[in-house]
Design brief:
This protein has one domain: Pnp Oxidase, Chain A (Roll). The protein contains five helices and 13 strands. It has helices at 97-105, 117-128, 136-146, 157-160, 249-254; strands at 8-20, 25-37, 50-55, 69-71, 77-81, 87-93, 107-112, 180-186, 204-216, 218-221, 223-226, 229-232, 240-243. It has a seven-stranded antiparallel beta sheet, covered by helices on one side. A two-stranded antiparallel ribbon has the order 1-2. A hairpin with a 4-residue loop joins strand 1 and strand 2. The longest helix is centred in the middle third of the chain and has 12 residues, at 117-128.
Length: 270
């Protein structure tokens, strides 16, 4: 094993240029210094915020149909291939219900959250609470009826989209109004798990997933003129459609909901 020692490397770059004066012309060289230093701090990049919806193992003895949904917050999602199938690499946090559900069912709905008050209000619940400790679906449904912090509710994907999977396919419930929904399935039967005999195993496992189906959403508004002012009219034909802006980790850091390490801030869960 190669051991890297903390070090600083200085690189001097020479830039040759010309300077002129009224009496003569001379060539001068200017130098700029680039300093390379080792660090333990990774780059703070801005990435999309997703929620993975999975089916809980709560079917009764008379049927194998799952009845409730668990959701989390996930940011380790990376597209890695587009042909012949779209493939994604997904990092699953260990010892979580989402990981357990996905590895059992081998499928999920990945939801790209919208930069909206409704979705932002769900982050603390979905990312800061464990599905082992509370039934998140119940919380979302109860809060919707009470019009409280997480007043968004959840719905059937078949009801929210016009081209969802066959009704015979049981899908997890989803948050309405996401930018995009991806139905993923596990490629193969294995996960990528890093373990070092001398150190703790990694915090996440990696799974490679195939995109089976995709759905997208837009917001629609209809307007009419009343005394020279435009107002939204419910039930009118769609006249304007706008793509949703996805929620990012940079936005959540800006709001103080997550830390620079990507964890839910303590103050955000109080």
């Amino acid at each position: 094993m190669t051991v890297l020692q903390s070090s600083t490397v200085m690189v001097v770059v020479l830039v040759e240029g010309l300077s002129t004066s009224s009496s003569s012309s001379s060539s001068t060289k200017k130098s700029s210094t680039i300093i390379y230093s080792s660090t333990d701090i990774p780059p703070l990049v801005d990435v999309p915020v997703w929620s993975m919806a999975t089916l809980n193992n709560d079917s009764d003895t008379n049927t194998t149909t799952r009845t409730t949904t668990n959701m989390n917050i996930i940011t380790y999602v990376t597209p890695i291939s587009i042909r012949p199938n779209r493939l994604y690499a997904v990092g699953l946090f260990k010892k979580t219900l989402s990981r357990e559900n996905f590895l059992r069912e081998k499928t999920c709905i990945l939801q790209l959250l919208c930069d909206s008050t409704e979705h932002i209000s769900c982050v603390k619940l979905l990312g800061g609470q464990s599905g082992y400790d509370l039934q998140k679906q119940n919380v979302l449904e109860q809060e919707e009826s009470l019009n409280n912090d997480h007043g968004i509710g959840i719905g059937e994907l078949q009801d929210l989209t016009s081209s969802a999977s066959s009704s015979e396919v049981v899908l997890p419930k989803v948050l309405p109004g996401c930018v995009q929904y991806l139905k993923l399935s596990l490629v193969g039967d294995d996960i990528i798990e890093y373990e070092d005999g001398e150190e703790e195993s990694s915090s996440h496992d990696i799974v490679i997933c195939k995109v089976d189906e995709m759905w997208t959403t837009t917001t629609s508004t209809s307007t009419s003129s009343v005394e020279g002012k435009e107002v939204v009219v419910e039930g009118e034909p769609k006249k304007q459609q706008q793509k949703q802006q996805y929620l990012s980790t940079g936005r959540l850091r800006e709001l103080g909901i997550i830390t620079e390490q990507g964890r839910i801030a303590i103050t955000a869960t109080e």
